[in-house]
Design a protein that fits this description.
Layout (H helix, E strand, L loop, with lengths): L8 E3 L8 H7 L8 E2 L3 E2 H6 L2 H5 L8 E6 L3 H14 L3 E6 L4 H5 L10 H14 L4 E6 L8 H12 L5 E5 L10 H4 L7 H10 L5 E4 L5 H8 L4 E4 L1 H5 L7 H6 L8 H17 L4 H5 L12 H11 L8 H7 L27
Parallel strand pairs: 1-9, 2-4, 3-4, 4-5, 5-6, 6-7, 7-8, 8-9
């Protein structure tokens, strides 16, 4: 890699998943991984309840705001607002394939308009000191060749985007649902590796199909950063080793029980503010995935967290059903990366 990037591992923005409660939960596992909000449209920020959309805990840093939109002026205003709120980075969504997003002329369909994306990035850059990044696909529909993607990146790079996060699948905007677009088109990692070779001056992040520490290590030999999506939600404890393996941190890795105990004061405070327990506990159901007692843990929370007056006793009772033992995330990156703590000074 020739372009050091300060966040070599990130968790993807995911609608209905990466809300502030999930992000606070993940901060009990990893301090250094870059986290993202869900995608928030410019209209929601400019005309809606900004606090509801943008508020977060200081412990969530580093944190990026992902925006959806296609109007340079509106995006620029929202980027400026993001700086005021204290975000660390602003990301433009050029990858979501849903019909609703397409009808708004943003998301993946913008890959067909690289000049407009360039203008959006330029306007955002001029409105804030924050890094402006772009998340996009390998391609869309008939614009599916490597050359099409390289052209898109070359045009947008003229606005000096700080990073390109590339989902390693094309998006078929007609004929596939958003869910199918996450799994049906084949992964094309070699195209992203080639993009980094052809544009060594750009920070390139790979996204799509990354499931393990070993996967992260393999990709980091070819690109600047790796983004995990569904694996981060379905196996959150995977991130318990990321700070140590990637950044060379020496702090003790928390046990799963440690993570829950650390969450309880936060959850108590949120309950006092009127947040429902189930809105927070739903993100923790997979913490014990693959461990003895995992089914009992999930069942107790699923059956009780939604009840009127439910509080953190539900979590404490569920925790009592799981044997307390320390078991770190599997996998070491040391065999995959020549110097596994090369980012320790970032």
């Amino acid at each position: 890699m020739t372009t050091p990037y300060p966040y070599p591992v990130s968790i993807a923005p995911m609608m209905d998943w990466t809300d502030r409660h999930y992000r606070y939960f993940m901060r009990q596992l990893t301090r250094r991984t870059l986290l993202y909000t869900e995608m928030i449209t410019t209209g929601a920020i400019l005309h809606g309840n900004q606090a509801r959309h943008l508020d977060f805990s200081v412990l969530e840093h580093p944190l990026a705001l992902q925006l959806g939109g296609d109007n340079p002026e509106a995006l620029a205003t929202c980027a400026s607002i993001a700086e005021t709120w204290g975000y660390d980075e602003v990301n433009l969504n050029v990858g979501c394939p849903s019909d609703r997003v397409q009808n708004g002329n943003f998301g993946a369909c913008l890959m067909a308009q690289p000049e407009l994306v360039r203008d959006c990035v330029q306007a955002m850059r001029e409105s804030t000191r924050l890094p402006i990044t772009v998340k996009h696909r390998i391609g869309i529909d008939n614009l599916d060749s490597y050359e099409d993607m390289a052209h898109f990146v070359e045009v947008v790079a003229a606005a000096r985007s700080a990073k390109f996060t590339v989902h390693a699948r094309i998006a078929w905007l007609q004929g596939l649902s958003p869910k199918e677009n996450r799994t049906v088109p084949p992964l094309r990692y070699d195209d992203i590796y080639r993009l980094k070779r052809d544009f060594p001056e750009l920070a390139i992040e790979l996204n799509g199909g990354v499931l393990s520490l070993e996967d992260i290590g393999k990709h980091l030999t070819q690109v600047d950063a790796v983004m995990l999506g569904r694996a981060a939600y379905q196996n959150p404890y995977l991130f318990a080793e990321v700070d140590r393996q990637i950044y060379g941190e020496v702090d003790e890795v928390p046990s799963r029980h440690d993570v829950i105990h650390a969450m309880l004061p936060y959850m108590d405070a949120m309950l006092e503010k009127g947040v429902y327990l189930s809105s927070m506990s739903r993100h923790m159901l997979q913490l014990f995935a693959g461990q003895p007692g995992a089914k009992a843990w999930k069942r107790h929370i699923s059956e009780n967290a939604h009840k009127t007056g439910a509080d953190t006793r539900v979590l404490r009772d569920a925790l009592a059903k799981v044997p307390e033992r320390v078991q770190h995330a599997r996998g070491s990156l040391s065999s995959n990366i020549p110097n596994s703590n090369i980012y320790s000074s970032a």
